[in-house]
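Below is how a single chain appears once it has passed through the pipeline. First comes the sequence as given, then the structure the pipeline wrote out for it. We keep one example in the README because the format questions we get most often are answered faster by looking than by reading.
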Amino acid sequence: MIDLFRSKFKHIIALLLLLLCLKSSGQETFFTFFPNPLNAYFGDMIEDEYGNYLAVGQQRIFNDFSTNRGTLWRITSQGDTLSKNFSHGGDTSTGFINVLHTDNHYCTIIGGITLHQQQNFNYLMILHIDSSLNVVEKKFIAPSGTTGASAQLVEKSMGNYYCVGNSINLDGVVQHSIMKLNNTFDIIGFQTYSFNSNGIFTGSFTDVIISPDSTQLWAFGYNLTPDDQSNCDMVVFDTLLNFVEIKPFPFGEFPYWSQFDDDLTVRFISDSTFLVGGQFWYQNYPDPAQVDIGFCKFDSSLVFKPVTVFGAIDTIDNSAFKRTFDFVSIDSIFFTGMKRTGGGLYPSSPSWIHVGLINNDLNPYYERYYGGDAFYWVNSILATSDGGALIAGNRYDYLTQGYERDAFFLKVNSDGLVTSSIHEPYCPYLPFSVYPNPGNGYPLIHLALRNAFLRVYNITGQMVLSFPIKEGANQVDFSRLPNGSYILSIIDQNGEVFSTKWIKN
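Resulting structure:
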């Protein structure tokens, strides 16, 4: 009987392993980007019912907002791509911010259109799109008493859409605002707000959720209230758009004085608890410039709790700009961000895409780093129906030093890996880069990990150099090596090995 049980148990384990392998093998992975002389700016993305991914944003000539064109990208689950720019014609500029699943349409895009011939009048633009990416219906709306309004965030509740953004009144004053739209996207409510004593417009909202009882909007933003010390606040409104209260995010304990900064992502993980992820920084210790990716669970009281952070204490680890985390199951929460992103929008050094998976207790399953071949700015992550995740943002070739940022999309499986053979040579799963390559005897090695060991092998497989390197830029001395080809291998603290080829000439 025991032997029979053991035999059945082994068969069950084998079957589970087979199912796990089949699940992983069924997850398509890829990296793709859209080279274009225009500057691309990412807005939002969704997955359609066929497993395709739809993303919206805008493209324009560097620093020329009049050339702004709303852009829609579609990527199939296999990585096949299609992009389309939308123009209303005449002296107008357009930009897309949100894409939604809506009834009776393939998707609905919410963005803005500026009519320059009407003294820069700004309409909220609603586009209903069919599966061929054609516009089947469009609507331009603007609240009365304004020269236009925007919708950075859109949340649906009880058949209505709440558009959180800002507006400009007839005197040219910018204010925070919320528009309430019905299911045909007509305005049924509009309100403006000022959150500081001098009435000056500051800050921005970065996320909004509906309260568990559907009676309130909880909007999260940064630098809204310069009258208090907190960088972030939760602002409460009722569904009639009346302001209820503002709750500053708490500080940590001395000596860290830590707090969340901008770029917050907020999602409910239970009926009364929501997860916050975003930039988390330390005001005085150990360095005012230090930024990590932070996660914390809150309820509506916003009592300070221990924060789980990802990042090294001596560098900048930014969260994603728009959506830092996403999940289908709360025990498998994907997150993303950026490693080593100093230097502005057009830097002279690379950065890395930070991909991780955490459980409901905020403990990590893994962390991965992709990139090092360009400067990557991560905007958003989408947990996909196949158990993986799609990461999107902008890619800048820092070696060209031009004014061109391209939209990129990185699809990983549940293990955070890209298994497609067409992935190379862009955005490698490699936490370091070497420049120049080919190069002379003093190349620069950029490392995304906190610490690692470098080993150098010649073409016969003989190790010729070995020494530790640290996070950041490492100027190494290979001057005594003869010209030829070498393999540079990095060994991280877990013993994982990453290798690349380098040529000395």
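The longest strand covers residues 444-457.

See the next section for the split statistics.
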